[in-house]
Design a protein that fits this description.
The complex is a heterodimer of chains A (about 350) and B (about 450). With about 350 residues, chain A is an all-alpha fold. Chain A has 15 helices and no strands. Chain B is built from 15 helices and 17 strands. The longest helix of chain B has 15 residues. Classes of the chains: A mainly alpha (about 350), B alpha/beta (about 450).
């Protein structure tokens, strides 16, 4: 029709898509990859403090997760879990919450339970209610309470740094008598059962007993800040947790100084920072609304303080997060945003 | 700096054309004018094949109040009044005009109209006669907005110079190259409607546009008995150019859901619309051409152009060196809300603000991942909806629940889809669901 009907290039057919035609470059797999990269320093710290056997535990839990994804996730789930990197991430996170001396078979089992009961039963990634890694850990703690509360001193203190831990290689259902090793108390059990408070600098550096990834508060704090700046997670959640622990713990410290350790001790001991930075921030199991993130984080903080100071266990981060995970649908419902132009009451 | 809440920051991609002066597209042989150019009812053709028309002559008249006149973009001969392809893909009634190759194609001209003396009804009729519609993209007949219902009053005029869509720079160029026309149109309209405030909102990525408008506003101060024009720089953020978001940005006021800016006494008009008003009242040029941007990675020579309404996309792309071999997708409008084309043989309409071409790599359908409820879409949505939930409900076919979750408030700006790291086509899911909700005669008010 046109006299300018051109000899220049013309596509054979045009693609028809719906707007928008541009999108941000960030994708879910990249998000997961960045979280995995953020975990590299945590893994390195675990090796530094607990020796090379830390790698065995982490590899075992990751293997368990990947196996379970393969067994229960279905072929599509398996492929998807690798494409988005979620299966190895869950296993690795679980490994970081385990005691260094845990038998490897338990780590494998925990990793498998994390995926099987924590994720695939709900319908896979995005559908799960509870943080899968913590489901795995809760299972292990229920099934093997002694092992999960037996801690080793940092490597190099009782045995050479390079030495393997014999307990790691224990077989299922055999008596632990033959493989007894040196144990140590975590700063939280020291405080709870012996009234000994570990100094803050040791807590920050991480040269204490504890689970593989939790001991170095300073490193975790730093990583948390970097990840928040890179918007890898909702920064409100860890901030709300820390503020709630500081405020509630601080208040109790003033009211009951005999029973409650200082706020800094509460903040930097145990799994609080590992939980606040890497567990509570799991987007799937935390509220989707910005206001809900504050409620969720504050709830975790208060529960952590309550469990630590008044519960039977020295540590409460895992249960605090799992309990608040269960509250997420309610929190989301209470905190739906007020639509533009619909007044306060709408 | 002022802005609205939430929203997104897409890469601007405006460098390719932000500094290129606007060129006039050479005349081509044929122009196609679909009668459906704007919101409301299509115009009614008043010419038949064989009729000779001069540039600017009316060729179709309004069919009712929410409709406008359509004028010939060129002098020539009407060759057909028949069904032709509309950019939307539908076949619609259209007028085809063959340009007269011997005509000098002079713009119509006459003495300025004494707009100040005419009653408001006549002013409104003049705007309708000029065929002026909202030129920001929505293309709603402007005169309808100027006819204020009994008992209401327009107190503030917001001129929209945001141009928040990536790639587009034609409004920017208009502000740089014809600031006096923008200011003149705004002052005529402001004085006629008796507003007490005229504000031009411009995003801060157009400092030269802001400076030019400020200079023009100063020079024009006092030329009418209405208020002078205030230029307000705004933060760069999408979708600032959305009417309600611009009002939120300028005055921190929310237009209630289901209501119009008029309910706050506010009128929002695009900068091009202002220039069109000035051209009609001062020079007698009706809306027969518009400024648009041709850009995108699939276009050989991106440009800002003044094109006669009715020019085919093919002719315009040809003028810009054609498409690159890897171009696979052509879009009318901006990349956030534009409309995809199935063929290049469709005309530019009054509301067409851009022609963008994307390449294969960009157009490939991205892999979709599971929704992680990361909440990025909630923080993108300037309407404060929960797009992640709406998308999930849409997939489940739960349209009633979507209606209760205010899906009908969605203005389909696409910020949610843009922000989704899992590549979920959120806005498209909502768009489809909204039409389902409308089909069933529902929709929250």
């Amino acid at each position: 029709m046109s006299d300018l009907a051109s000899r220049e290039h013309e596509p054979d057919s045009l693609i028809l898509r719906a707007a928008p035609y541009v999108s941000r470059s960030l994708t879910t797999p990249r998000l997961m990859t960045e979280v995995l990269i953020a975990l590299v320093p945590v893994v390195a710290a675990a090796v530094v403090f607990f020796g090379p056997s830390a790698l065995l535990v982490l590899a075992a839990s990751t293997l368990g997760s990947v196996l379970a994804e393969w067994a229960f996730g279905g072929r599509r789930g398996f492929v998807a879990a690798f494409r988005d990197g979620s299966a190895p991430l869950t296993g690795l996170l679980l490994g970081l919450t385990l005691p260094p001396a845990i038998p490897l078979w338990m780590a494998v089992l925990g990793g498998a339970v994390a995926i099987a009961l924590g994720k695939t039963v709900f319908g896979g990634l995005g559908q799960n209610v509870f943080n899968p890694a913590l489901v795995g850990r809760a299972f292990l703690q229920a099934a093997f309470p002694t092992v999960l509360t037996t801690w080793s001193p940092p490597a190099g203190e009782a045995a050479p740094w390079l030495a393997w831990r014999a307990t790691n290689f224990a077989f299922p259902f055999l008596s632990r008598a033959g493989v007894d090793s040196v144990t140590a108390a975590t700063p939280l059990s020291l405080a709870k059962f012996q009234g000994v408070t570990t100094a803050v600098p040791s807590l920050l550096s991480g040269h204490t007993a504890g689970s593989l990834g939790e001991t170095s508060a300073g490193l975790l704090l730093l990583l948390g800040i970097v990840m928040a700046v890179r918007r890898l997670f909702d920064w409100r959640i860890p901030l709300a947790i820390l503020l709630a622990v500081a405020a509630f713990g601080g208040l109790l410290h003033v009211l009951l100084p005999a029973r409650c350790p200082s706020t800094l001790f509460l903040l930097f001991s145990g799994g609080l920072l590992l939980g606040a930075v890497f567990m509570a921030t799991d987007p799937v199991t935390s509220p989707v609304t910005p206001r809900g993130a504050w409620v969720f984080g504050a709830g975790i903080g208060v529960l952590v303080v309550l469990i630590r100071l008044f519960g039977g266990l020295p540590e409460g981060v895992m249960y605090a997060i799992l309990l608040m995970n269960a509250m997420v649908p309610h929190v989301d419902r209470w905190t739906q945003p007020r639509p533009f132009g619909r007044g306060r009451a709408a | 700096m002022k802005t609205f809440q939430h929203g997104v920051h897409p890469a601007e991609h405006k460098d390719a054309t932000a500094d290129s002066p606007t060129r006039r597209l050479p005349f081509v042989s044929h122009y196609v004018l679909p009668l459906a150019q704007h919101g409301g009812r299509p115009s009614k053709a008043i010419v038949t094949a064989g009729v000779r028309v001069e540039r600017g002559d009316p060729v179709a008249e309004p069919d009712g109040f929410v409709s406008t006149t359509l004028c010939a973009p060129v002098a020539g001969t009407v060759t057909a009044v028949e069904r032709r392809r509309h950019p939307s893909g539908a076949l619609v009634d259209a007028i085809e005009i063959a340009a007269d190759p011997w005509s000098p194609q002079r713009l119509p001209s006459r003495d300025p109209l004494d707009w100040a003396a005419m009653p408001l009804e006549e002013f409104v009729a003049q705007v309708q006669r000029a065929g002026i519609v909202g030129l920001g993209g929505a293309a709603f007949p402007s005169h309808v907005k100027y006819k204020v219902p009994e008992g209401r009053r327009l107190e503030r005029l917001a001129v929209n110079g945001c141009e928040c869509e990536p790639y587009l720079t034609c409004d920017h160029r208009l502000m740089v190259e014809r600031p006096e026309a923008v200011v003149r149109g705004a002052m005529i309209l402001g004085a006629k409607l008796g507003v007490r405030e005229i504000v031009v909102g411009v995003e801060a990525n157009k400092p030269d546009g802001i400076a030019a408008l400020e200079r023009a506003a100063k020079e024009a101060a006092g030329s009418t008995d209405g208020p002078t024009v205030d230029v307000v720089p705004l933060d760069v953020k999408y979708p600032q150019g959305a009417e309600k978001m611009l009002i939120r940005a300028l005055w921190r006021e929310e237009v209630p859901a289901g209501k119009l800016p008029l309910d706050l006494g506010v009128l929002v008009n695009n900068v091009q619309t202002m220039a069109a008003l000035a051209d009609w009242f001062d020079r007698g040029v009706p809306l027969i051409e518009r400024w648009l941007t041709v850009s995108g990675p699939g276009v050989r020579e991106p440009a800002n152009l003044v094109v006669p309404i009715g020019t085919s996309v093919r002719d315009i792309l040809h003028h810009c060196g054609g498409l690159l071999p890897e171009a696979r997708e052509v879009v009318l409008g901006g990349p956030m809300m534009g409309q995809p084309l199935a063929t290049l043989d469709v005309p530019v309409l009054k509301g067409t603000s851009g022609i963008l071409a994307f390449t294969e790599a960009r157009a490939a359908r991205p892999t979709e991942y599971a929704c992680l409820k990361c909440g990025r879409c909630l923080e993108a949505c300037s309407n404060f909806l929960n797009p992640s939930r709406l998308a999930r409900l849409a997939r489940a076919g739960r349209f009633d629940d979507m209606d209760r979750a205010f899906a009908m408030d969605c203005m389909e700006c696409g910020a949610c889809s843009w922000s989704c790291p899992s590549n979920i086509p959120i806005v498209q899911l909502i768009r489809v669901a909204k039409s389902e909700i409308r089909k069933h005669g529902k929709g929250t008010k």
